[in-house]
Amino acid sequence: MAGHSKWKNIQRRKNAQDAKKGKIFMRHAKDIYTAAKQGSGDLSTNASLRLAVEKAKADNMPNDNIDRAIKKATGTLDGASFEELTYEGYGPGGVAVIVHVLTDNKNRTAAEVRHAFKKNDGNLGENGSVSFMFDRKGYIVISNEEAKIDEDELTLEALEAGADDIVTQEDGYEIYTTPEAYQEVVDYLNEKGYSIEDSEVTLIPQNYNKLSEEDAGKMFTLIETLEENEDVQDIHHNLDETE
């Protein structure tokens, strides 16, 4: 996995998305909704929800908005009924793409996602058409911008907690786990005092696809178009963005 930092690959697009203030609260609300729906509405026992709420508060999302998203997920508030859907397909140059959405209108979302692919030389496929190219893993980022972390000590502790792999990056570490061991590793590293920059159970490509400059430009446009869609929650792809 070294040389293909998921964290670095998403930072440019994540920062660009976060700059669009009009959509930040909606995206956070859906992240909170998803975390509460998959776990519970209790922050003390649902680490994913706790992280989603912390991110929302960091962007100054009002507490009322946060509470409303949790109540929608737990069925204690009348409102729109959101449905989670997954789209799979290929971007320009054959890059595998998986798009997760949370929508209250699946017909609208399907049309918009299909249009984004078609406009950028991609095409949607059937469910399962590209998902076999990805592995579901726990992913944890620990920042080391001040270079105070002892790499050997962190490696031993992460492996002891149940991690599968740890990758050293320029300003931190990426830790990979099985989905089953993910929460235990997160809790253990938190107890040891490490500052976790980000963590999630996500999809990691088995192989990466390197494109020509022209096709890479189209692929970035496809990603940005999808990210501008308020229904899109996550985008996974196997584009090799390293230089």
Features:
243 residues, alpha+beta, 4-stranded antiparallel sheet, 8 helices, 8 strands, globular, disordered N terminus
Describe it.
With 243 residues, the protein is an alpha+beta fold. The chain contains eight helices and eight strands, in the order ααααββαββαββαβαβ. The chain has helices at residues 6-18, 21-38, 47-58, 63-74, 106-119, 151-161, 182-191, 213-227; strands at 83-90, 96-103, 123-125, 134-143, 165-169, 172-177, 196-205, 232-237. The strands form two sheets. A four-stranded antiparallel sheet has the order 3-1-2-8. Strands 5-6-4-7 form a four-stranded antiparallel sheet, with helices on one face. Strand 5 and strand 6 form a beta hairpin. Helix 2 runs antiparallel to helix 3. The radius of gyration is 18 Å and the shape is globular. The two termini are 15 Å apart. Mean pLDDT is 86; it is low at 1-5 and 10-14.
